[in-house]
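2.7 Reproducibility. Because tokenized structures are sensitive to small changes in the input, we list the exact sequence used for beta-galactosidase, including any N-terminal residues retained from the expression construct. No trimming or masking was applied before prediction.
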Amino acid sequence: MLYNSFDEVPVPGPHIASNFHPSMIQDFYRFHSDTIIDFVKLQARILRKFSVGRPLTTNLYPSPFLPIIDMVELSTYLDYISWDNYPTWGEQEAPFPHPFLSAMQQYNRGLKNLPFTVMEQISGFQGHDLLGYLPAPGQTKLWMKHSIIHGSNAIYFFRYRTARFGQEQLCYGILDHDKEKTERYYELQKGIQEIKEHAEDFTEELFPAQVAIVHDIENARNWKHQPISTGLKFSPVPWAQLGYDVEMATWFSGMNVLNVNTHFRPASTTDFKDYKIIILPMYTMVNDVVFKRLEQFVREGGILVLGFRTGAKNLDGWMYDSPIPGPFTEMAGIKVRKFEAVGNQKIKFQFRYFPGICSKICEILEPTTAEVWARYTDRKKFYKGSPVITANHYHKGRVIYVGSSLESLSFVLLYRRILKEAKIPFIFYGQNVEKIFRIGRKQNYEIFINHSGKKSLAGLKILDPYEVRILPKKK
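Resulting structure tokens (single pass, no recycling of outputs):
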């Protein structure tokens, strides 16, 4: 399509025909992002001129892929990352699952691969017009510690005293409207005392990990306007499309539940050689520079895990004139010519001796050099018996291809096998217990977090409801 001037370019929005050209929507998202980043750059230039030497930040959106802003580029104009952490908000009936919260913490830590600030940490139960879930005793304290354990070195609570008037008079803080000290006040006070000594030792140290889930802003944008499957279209409010966010967090959750320290890093700036395993879900639009670095990573012995619809498009939004996974075909040792968008149907498959469940998109994999790790077993589908997960040797490394969206337990089964190959230790304590390893200046730490309101077992340890147990270890 050829335009004579910028005035002829339409702004994507509601209209009577089908949706706009996908490449036009992608370019509009890029333009929108560039405009916001230019504004941040302008503000940063002014502030640095008149406030010399003072650190600069701005609090990023709670869910990282909700906007289409390139947060990696935006963060280059900031001295450190800060964000707003609300595990529950408004009329939610329950908090977000803890692997989702861990993924969001790691996303913000991973933008610069450095400690971050929580500019707004939940301190009560909050909303503007509607209220819902009331945090249980001990839960607000847990969320504070959870932020610190995942990389925060500074926390500002929102808010101290609840506002008596204005838009946020329903945003309950540490104190209520009457200024009397509340249970929340004493709970947070106790939590700070409990973690203070250990936090001072490890918060400024790097968060160690041998595994990274890798995200990409171009693909986050692409999946917003072209989700393909109704299962990847999730809009809790009309202006938000969070299908990519939820799917990425699901891929993260398997490692989180197996208690493997895992980074959440951007494809554009991550040095893949820092890791043994790179997990790259939903990488539909391929950046040639990133592809070359990934190929080198696998060639030299790394393990790369790819997801469905990998390698379908270039950055112009044009489909490759070759089957999926496009440029990754030789590395992955497969081709994909057929797939079904199954929405939220639960499709059965078999992983060795274990049954699994997948959904959203089901690709029918055609191995060329890859071995089959899992096959569809669902009698309702004509492709029963076809491969859904494969693994291929490529030079010194491995490429695992996952042709569908797995449920969390199925990811656990898959990751167990991959971690064993990579010789990375893991352990499963159930869906409610999270274990994190931190390196401190003086000591190292094993940290056990019980996200449940009931007692939970972590090996021989009995954790109280919402307990965070920090065990120092000699270096």
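Residues 22-50 form the longest helix (29 residues).
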